Every structure is written in C-alpha cells, then in structure tokens.
Amino acid sequence: MNFESFAQSLSFFLWSTFVISVILGAVVNKTNFCTMGAVSDMVNMGDYGRFRAWLLTIAVATIGVSVLEYMGLVNVSETFPPYRANQFIWIENILGGVLFGIGMTYASGCGNKTLIRIGGGNIKSIMVFVVIAVIAYYMTSPFPDSDKTLYSVLFYDWVNPLAVSLQGNQDIGALISKENTQTMRLAAGLLVAAGLLFYIFKAADFRSSKDNILAGAVIGLIIVTAWYTSSNINIKTEDASYSMADYYAEWDMLADSNEGKPASGRTLSPQSFTFINPIGQTFGYIKDGFKPALLTFGLVSVFGVILGSLFWSLVTRSFRLEWFADFKDFMNHFVGAILMGFGGVLGLGCTIGQGITGMSTLAVGSILTFVSIVFGSAITMKIQYYKLVYEDEASFIKAFITALVDIKLLPASMRKLDAV
Known about the structure:
Elements: E1 2-3, H1 6-31, H2 35-45, H3 49-70, E2 87-88, H4 90-106, H5 111-119, H6 124-140, H7 150-154, H8 156-159, E3 164-165, H9 172-176, H10 181-201, H11 204-207, H12 210-231, E4 234-236, E5 241-243, H13 244-249, H14 251-254, H15 276-287, H16 297-315, H17 327-346, H18 353-358, H19 364-390, H20 396-406
Helix pairs in contact: 1-5, 1-12, 1-16, 2-3, 2-19, 3-10, 3-12, 4-17, 4-19, 5-6, 5-16, 6-15, 6-17, 15-16, 19-20
C-alpha cells in the first residue's frame, strides 16, 4: 500500500486500525471471549472450552504470521513493542506476567475485557481503566518536572542487570538456526500451530461450540490483519519508498515542515493489538490536550474496541449499568488495576498483547509471559477458593501450598487443606 504523502499514509493507518478494532470489540462481546474467564473455567470447573478458544486464536495468528513472514509480507522482527528483541528480559516477563495474572483476577478481567465491559455499561471498569492508565503512563513517561518514571524508580536497578543479551532475535526459529532463520521460523510456526490445533479440536465439545470457534478464528485473523496492515504502509518519494517509521527517522530530509509529525516514531513500527500501554497512552492524550500528534495505533484501538462492544451491546440489548457491590468489591478492582498497570508494562503486554500478538511471533519472552499470566491467575483463583471454603481455618500459606498441589507444582503429600 503506497501513498503519496505521510499524511495520507498515517490517516489510512489510523482509520484502518479503528475499523479493525471496532470489529474486534463486537466479536469479543458477542462470543464472550475472555482470557480470565478461560482460566476461571479451567481452574474452577474443569471446562477448557474458552481456554481452547484462546489457544485457537494463537494458532490462527501464528499460522498467518509464519506464512506471511516467509513470503516477505509482514515484518514482525522490528516491532512495537519489540517482542523479538535480542535483550531477553526474562525476569520482567515472569514478574510482569504473574502480576498481570493476579491483577486481572481481582479486577474481573484483563485490559481488553475492561474495554469490552466499559462498552457494555460496566462503570466499575471505568475505574479500572483510569487506574491502569495512570500507572501504565508513568511507568514509561517521567513524572512532572522530573526525569524519573515508575519503572526507573521501582524496577530498573535490579531487573536490568538480570537481562540476557542474545546474539540474535529471541524467537524460536532464530534460536534454532541462525543460518536458515527464515525457513526455520516457518517450520516452527506451523509445527507449533499444528500441535495446538490437534489439542484444541480433539475435544468433541469444543468442535460443537460455534462461539468459541468463531472467537478463536476471527480474533486470530484480526491479529494477523493488523500485522499485515502495519507492515505494508509506505510513502512514495521521488527517490524511494519509505515505511512510516523510516520516513519519520528521515523527517528533516523528506518533509517540508513539522506539520503532521507524530510525537514518536516507535509507534509507527509494525504492530498488532495490545492494550495496557495504549490505555496509558490514553491518559497522556487527555492530559496533553488531545493533540493529534499523540494519536497512535494503540490509542485508536482502545476507542475502537469500546465502540465495537457498545455497538454489540446496544444491538443485542445487553447494555447494563453495573456498579460495585460493596467496598470490598471496589478494593479488589482497585488493587487488580494497579497490578495490571505494573504487570502489563513490565511484561511488555497483556493476555492479548503477549498472550496472542506476541505469541504469534514465537518470541520466548512472549511464551514466558503467557505462561506466567496463566499461572498468576490460576494460583490466585485457587487461593481465593480455599479461603472462601475454609474461612479462618485456611491461612494464606496453607491455601497457597494447597493451590500449588492442585496445579501439580508440588507433590500431593504437601497438601495442607482437603480438596473440595
């Protein structure tokens, strides 16, 4: 897709993102696609339907990315955020994933689900949105009259030395073969996707679940569509053709003035959906007076998903205003939002951003974050369950150890509370 000017390319980029996001919001609302709900069904009821829908989304996105990358039609190695970066931030992936998993459990849903619930009339989720927005913004942006961020104050000094510098990209294909990376990425992607598809469709009840199959297939294709669109927007000049990010880097040489110049070039790189950092961008956009230069893929996608969910809620007459049941409910959501704000930025994404978009690149950091999110959510649900059933008899330590036994990370002999 070639455009005559940067303004035309940016307009197409943002409007196409908005349209795709509206579709995403409507589909997620219609199918009740919920990653926290998937973990809850799996942990509390032994129902793997929605978890398989999540895995189907990953499989579809991985197939699409692997094939298109092999054909040279998408670029998922120079992305925003940098999923395949040669800096392997394993401690941030684990810590961020666990914090996010705990947070989304307390807040009744992940970042994407928060947007869906806002569109459906859930006022509780507006509070969650605001808390995530402030924390995510100041995790990456300096405090007023300062050069310090939440990340630099709380995390940088002890997590940065633990990062591992790799010789190349951190995705599975690049790690297996540095000489034949392109082919290996295709083979690894198709192999991983085939394994997932076998596991997903061997369940007869899933094969008969239209909503779960629809959610997995359509959302996976939406992720691929965003990758494709953001990778193929170019600006033609007299001498060459530039991607938006490259044009931005050469702005002084190529543009006549700074009119229409975005605030950052990083957000013009190839990308697909993620929601915690974009929710933070929303806070910055409002704080700085709705400057057009601050409009990004992520920011537009936030509004698009809310609108798509609202549209489906109104069409199906499922729009319902909902408020906190009591102060405890408020505090659970408040604490959950704080943890998601920190965790989503630390881990470079949420259940969508790392759990699907990042996973489609087969980056090791994304896989680690995905597993950590599921673990954090599952262990929290188990602890909550045992605390509810046993009340005063179940200390946190007893509930925690028993939860680890339940998810088979400790031997049965260490069980502290009887299974219920």
